[in-house]
Specification:
The chain contains eleven helices and twelve strands. By secondary structure, it is α/β, with parallel strands linked by helices. Helix 1 packs across helix 2 (22-33), helix 4 crosses helix 5 (163-174) and helix 6 (194-203) runs parallel beside helix 8. Bound molecules: S-adenosyl-L-homocysteine (SAH). The site of S-adenosyl-L-homocysteine (SAH) has 17 residues, from strand 8 and strand 10.
Amino acid sequence: MILSDLSFNEIIDYIKARGLPRFRGEQLFDAIYQGKALDEISNLPKGLKEQLQDVYPKYKILYRFVGKDGTKKYLVALDDECAVECVLMKYKYGYTICISTQVGCRMGCKFCASTLKGLKRNLSAGEMIGQILLVNRDIDGKGTSRNITNVVLMGSGEPLDNYDNVVKFINLASSPKGLNISQRNISLSTCGIVDKIYQLAELKLNITLTISLHATTDENRKKIMPIANKYSIDEIIKACKDYFKKTKRKIYFEYTLVQDINDSDEDVKRLAQMLKGMTCHVNVIPLNDVKERSLKKTTRLMAYQFVEKLKKAGVSATVRRTMGEDIGGACGQLRNTILGI
Ligand code: SAH
């Protein structure tokens, strides 16, 4: 356990259980949420700080890369030997952060750098919160203004493979006493772990569910995403419909365009058929080159052409802005380059 795994009330209880007054808990909470390191806290007694040594978060920013477009990519060191990436993107309406949910990933998608060395471990809810706290602090230097308003769980890892911690994270992030980020501004991206989608729907959270679809036939999906051996596209679509029924949240589909694998006219037809009648949107993403992978990069022009065809077929679709390409913006690329893992 680290203290950022706890909610505001739990931190107060933690402090009270040690016979200390409530305001000490409030000070501790503020320090954690300002992204401070333990030795930077000046208003807590030395004795208490010593007691907190083992539970106070030690995560810190190891590297920061700034892309030409202003996108920042961070490598965050965790309490153990592990490190994860997160990416900060500036939009007109504010800042969006893309955070990691696991160290590595065991899903094995062929185009993705995060999965090259498999899964190392899950992140705790507090380690996911920590990425936001550190970057919030990096933006204003103090960590007191909550500049980050949108969160996407699209960094390294499969969020639904770390279900309990991710749900806990969403509750901490959206709690008014926590980061107070609206659930409507939190997107969870999954390769499609069907039973967990049903489970998530039951919670009736206001978050956006995003499915990494990337193919229109199971046969093709299996070529690039091993998870397709477990769940069919039909099963995923059924689960999405259930999610929409329970939450009334529009479903997003990510469709990374891979030359000669999923970019045919037949794919357009099948996609339109599959999504007919659903409240959904398709984000078409040109493949970011991953040097360890042999798949062919697609151009933005190809992505625009594909989107035009989708629109003609009645599917709501856009080309997703690619940001931070020059700084290894795609999943797992930075960690691989820097740490050689
Ligand atoms: N495991 C989750 C979240 C992490 S991946 C999921 O599968 O959705 C986040 C998104 O980045 C996914 O849509 C993934 O397919 C995409 N992605 C990964 N590597 C990429 C690459 N090299 N180029 C473009 N998109 C990539």
